[in-house]
Amino acid sequence: MRVLVIEDEKVQRDNLVKIVERSYINTKAYGAANIKEAKEILTSKEIDLFFIDINLPDGSGLELAKSIREIERYEHTGIVFITTQVIQIIDAFKSTHCYDFLIKPFNNEDIKAIIGTFYRKLGINTNVNKGNYLIVPIENGVSVKVYEDEIIFVEYASRKSIIHTIKNKFVCRSLTLTKILSNCVNSNIVQSHKSYLVNINYIDKIEKVYSKLYDIHFTNTDKIAQLSNSYKDLVYKKWCNE
């Protein structure tokens, strides 16, 4: 599931992107500040749901929505308008058959409710407890069930694997990265470095540190993983196809 948020106010855009990705597994949210950026993303990616601010700096969000509807693959794609004025929504419903709308200021529950309803209408399962999982032994004979779709990244340090998920962090001394990777069904979990596995779905950006090393930043945490030259092509190929 891919969501595109088109909102010129950076704080609101970033907040909406985070809410979407933190609330639903297997969901990637992209942010665009204007129509130009939005068109670049919707052309290169297959978007399943749009959030569009009606007032954008380089044009009308309503006109953008109309142009989206002219693209065959987006003829029936969900569109949610963001606005400060309810009166603007009337024309939006008539001309673009939009799915729903958000009135500023909106809260987290408003967004979750809209996306949850959209998922259910499409028959998409939002229950994270039905995904593939790993049984991870932690300490004192205790093992936990870790859902693969919730794993952000795994690091190996001081002879132990540290699994970072969207909700918790688990430390395991008996599983190596190789063992964890071989047990994963989710093909979006890949090796990025001799000491790291990463989930492609949560990568926000990749920054070059020096010629042979890169930092990987994620949407759901401030923590950073590393990418080495040996795995760069694999990671970029998977990430760019998301």
Mind explaining what this structure looks like?
By secondary structure, the chain is of the alpha/beta class. It has 2 domains: 2-122, Rossmann fold, CATH 3.40.50; 131-240, OB fold (Dihydrolipoamide Acetyltransferase, E2P) (Beta Barrel), CATH 2.40.50.1020. The chain is 32% helix and 35% strand. It has 7 helices and 17 strands. It has a 5-stranded parallel beta sheet with strand order 2-1-3-6-7, with helices on both faces. Strands 12-11-10-14-13 form a 5-stranded antiparallel beta sheet. Strand 11 and strand 12 form a beta hairpin. Helix 1 crosses helix 5 (108-122). It is elongated, with a radius of gyration of 20 Å.
CATH architecture of the largest domain: 3-Layer(aba) Sandwich
* Distance separating the two termini: 10 Å
| Main sheet summary | 5 strands, parallel
Could you say which overall geometry the principal axes of the C-alpha atoms support? elongated
Q: How are helices and strands ordered from N to C? A: EHEHEEEHEHEHEEEEEHEEEEEH
Q: Return residue spans where pLDDT drops below 50 for at least 5 consecutive residues.
A: none
Q: What is the CATH C level class of the largest domain, in words?
A: Alpha Beta
Number of strands: 17
Q: Roughly what is the average pLDDT, rounded to an integer?
A: 85
Helical fraction equals: 25-40%
Number of structural units classed as domains = 2
**Quaternary arrangement of the chains shown?**
single chain
- Global Rg: 20 Å
CATH topology of the largest domain: Rossmann fold
What percent of residues are in strands?
25-35%
Strand-pairing-aware structural class = alpha/beta
CATH superfamily of the largest domain, called what?
A: Response regulator
Q: What's the total helix number?
A: 7
Spatial ordering of strands, largest sheet:
2-1-3-6-7
